[in-house]
Amino acid sequence: MEALFYFYRMKAIILPEKNARPSYVEVPEAPKSEGMEVLTVMACALNHRDLWIMKGQYAGLKYPIIPGSDACAALGSKRVVLNPGLFWGADECVQGKHFQILGLPLDGTFAEKVNVPAENIYPAPKHLDDMEAAAIGLAGVTAYRALVSRCKPVPGERLLVTGVGGGVALFALQIGLACGLEVHVTSSRPEKLAKAIAMGAAGGVLYSTPEWETKLKEQCCDGFDIIVDGYAGASFAKLVQLARPGGRIAVYGGTGGKMSDIVPQQIFWKQVSIFGSTMGSQTDFAGFLALVNEKKLKPVVDSVYDLHNAEAAFQRMESQDQFGKIVLRVSGK
Hints:
This protein is of the alpha/beta class and 333 residues long. The chain has helices at 48-54, 130-134, 137-150, 167-178, 190-199, 212-219, 236-242, 264-268, 282-295, 310-319; strands at residues 9-14, 23-28, 36-45, 70-75, 78-82, 85-86, 100-101, 113-117, 121-123, 158-161, 182-187, 203-206, 224-229, 243-251, 273-276, 301-306, 325-329.
């Protein structure tokens, strides 16, 4: 009898193999399983994770796969959003061994239907439209855990957010402002700095220029209480230099590769704390949503594409031109 469920089919974006472009195809709907809910997707959003899955940059990848970690969806008559971090476990300090992110290995949200654990489903914020609500999940909970849960900001402190323009960095900027922090940013492009300052950042520098850390010191002579970074790499040593005594640095990504030339005395003598941070627990996601609702936060949406035009959305992300989230509107919704 269970095989009869596969009579139902849906449109979806699949990644057929490593380095293959996304394809818009018809696939079987997976049957509902215990503890899971089948959601009707209205909009979904890209993350760099989807791009890296396409390029085969994760261990144990099996193709074809439906990517996607974020969505605004319908559960019956209810409009919902998702915490894309699945099976966190009981320890708030660290994810358990069964933790995974929706879209790998479980098929993700780039489809008309998606199966999600019931515990990961939350009411969508009423002040957000479908495209905005689809854009908050992965980036928002990652930024919230890194900044709020890990670094525990105090109003009036000074925050540095690196690489503004990406989804996590923009949410860190918004959350920092909502928490009463003085926020500064770095970026590779002057237009992105200008947009961040228009959003409320107190200042910023281009990290693509020589001695950018010196320019930041000129803006903030005594450094930063909190730094939120998703790049790491050789430039991380400069972040340690920029941290104030008692400062906290949260690292949520490592696209820059290995850290080098870090002076340990600058860490222990200044009592600097360095926190690793990945995604977020159900507690983190609930706290993030509460802040979104209380402060009426809205994600920055860079662009919206129809689901069948996902390849253009992936190209937009590859270009690194985006400022904010790239969203897919599901066809017919």
